[in-house]
Amino acid sequence: MVTVRRSIFDEPRPADVAPVGRLDWLLVAAFAAAVAVEAVVRPDVAWRPLATVLALALIPALLWRRSRPLTAALAGWGVAGLLTVLQLTSHDGDLGLHAMLAVLILLYSVVRWGSGREAVVGTAFVAVVVALGMYASSAGRADVFGGSVLLLLCVALAAMFRYRADLWHRQRREIRNEERVALARELHDIVAHHVSAIAVQAQAGGAVAGVQPEKAAEVLAAIESEASRTLAEMRSMVRVLREQESVAYAPQRGVADLPALANADATPAVEVSLDGSLISLARPVDAALYRLAQESLTNALRHARGATRVGIDVRREGDAVRLRVSDDGANEPGPVPAPGFGLLGMTERAQLLGGSLSAGPRPEGGWMVEAVLPAQALA
User: Fold this and answer.
1) What is the pLDDT at residue 167?
2) What are its E.C. numbers (predicted)?
3) What pLDDT digit, counting tens, does each position of 209-225 carry?
4) 359 near 369, Cβ under 8 Å?
C-alpha cells in the first residue's frame, strides 16, 4: 500500500501537454455565452450579478487547465466553495449558475494533466467543496449518490485517458529503442565488414609493395573500391533515415549473394558452400543469413590467428537452415573472451527470427559460429 501511494505521489506530469489552441478558445466562448444567457433568463438566482462575475472568473482557469492544472482546479472549485459559503451565511437560495458545472472539466484536468501530488491535492480539495455544497443544499441520499458517481466518473475517465496516453508513449519509446538497436546492428555489420576488408587489403599491399610493385596498384584499387562501397552504403542508410518520403535503394542481400564473399586468392582463403533448397526462404531469414555470414567472416578476418581458410557453409535441414562459419586458426590459451557487440547483435538477430546462434572454439582448432534459423520467419 505504501509503495502504491509513493508511486502515485511521484508520478510526474505528462510530457505531451498541448498549448492553448483554437478548441480552448471555443470552449471559453461557449462557456461565456452560457453564463451570459443564464444570467438573463434566470432572475431567480440570488445575488445574480456576483454569481455571474464569479462564473466568468473561471475563464482563465479553463485556459490554464493543462499548463497549470492544480492552480486551475483550486481557482475554479474555490469559486464554487465561495458561493457555497455565501449561501450558508446568507441563508438565500441557490447562488450558482448551471454553467458552473464547467468546474467538472477542471477536476478532469487535474487528474489527467497534473502530477501525482497535484492530482491528489486537487481531488481532495474538490471532495471538501462538494461535501460542503451537499451540506448547504441539504441534499438527500439520492443526490449524494448521484453527485458522488458523477465526480468518480470524471476522475475515472481522466485516469483512463492518462493511462492510455502513457501506454502509447511507452510503446513509441519501445519501437524507437528497437529501431535504434536494429540500426546499430546494421551499421556494425556493414562498416565492420568493409573496414576489415580494407585492413586485409592494406596488409597485403604492404607485403607485396616491395616484392611485386605492379600488384600494389591492384591492391590500392581494391581498397578504393571497398571504401567507395562502404561510403555509398552509409549514405544510402543515412538518406533513408533523414528523408520522410520513400527512397529507392538496393534490395537486401541474401543467401544467393554469399558466393561473392568467396576469395581463393586472399589469406585466409574464403570458401562458400551452399547445399539444399535455399530459394524458398522467407525474406527476413534470407537477409539474416547473409548478415550473419558476413559478420562471422569479418570476425574471422580480424581475430583468427594464423588462419589459412575460412569456410561458410549453408544447408537446408527440413524446416530449418543451418549456417556454419569456421576457420582453422590457432586458439588462444585461457578462458573464452566475453562476446562483443558483434556476437550480441548476431544472437539478437537470430533470436528475433525464432532461431539460435552459438559461437566458440573448435576442438580441432579455430573458431566456429553456428546459427540455426527457421526457413520461414516467425510471425
Assistant:
1) 83
2) 2.7.13.3
3) 666 666 666 666 666 66
4) yes
- Quick one: cell of 344? 550480441
- Sign of dihedral through CA atoms 201, 207, 209, 212? negative
Locate 200 and state its grid cell: 586485409
Q: Provide the domain count of the chain.
A: 2
Sheet containing 356-361: which strands, arranged edge to edge? 269-275, 309-317, 320-327, 367-374, 356-361
Cα gap 55→88, rounded to integer Å: 18
Whether residue 263 contacts residue 226, with contact meaning beta carbons closer than 8 Å, is answered with: no
Dist CA 136 CA 138 (whole Å): 6
- pLDDT at residue 321, as a whole number: 92
Give a yes or no: residue 16 inside a domain. Answer: yes
Q: Give the C-alpha separation, 107 to 76, whole Å.
A: 9
Does residue 314 have a pLDDT over 90?
yes
Question: Nearest to residue 131, comparing CAs of 140, 144, 113?
Answer: 144
pTM for the complete prediction? 0.51
User: Residue 89: which domain range?
Assistant: 2-138
Locate all alpha helices (DSSP H) within the chain, ordered by sequence.
Answer: 2-9, 22-41, 48-56, 59-64, 69-90, 103-113, 116-136, 141-208, 213-242, 283-303, 341-352
3-state SS track over 50-64: HHHHHHHCCHHHHHH
Distance CA(360)–CA(335), nearest Å, equals 11
- Which pLDDT does position 325 carry in this prediction? 93
- Quote the pLDDT of residue 249: 46
Tell me which of 138, 171, 195 is where a domain ends: 138
| Preceding amide of 69 cis, omega within 30 | no
pLDDT of residue 247: 46
CA distance 217 to 226: 14
Is residue 231 domain-resident?
no
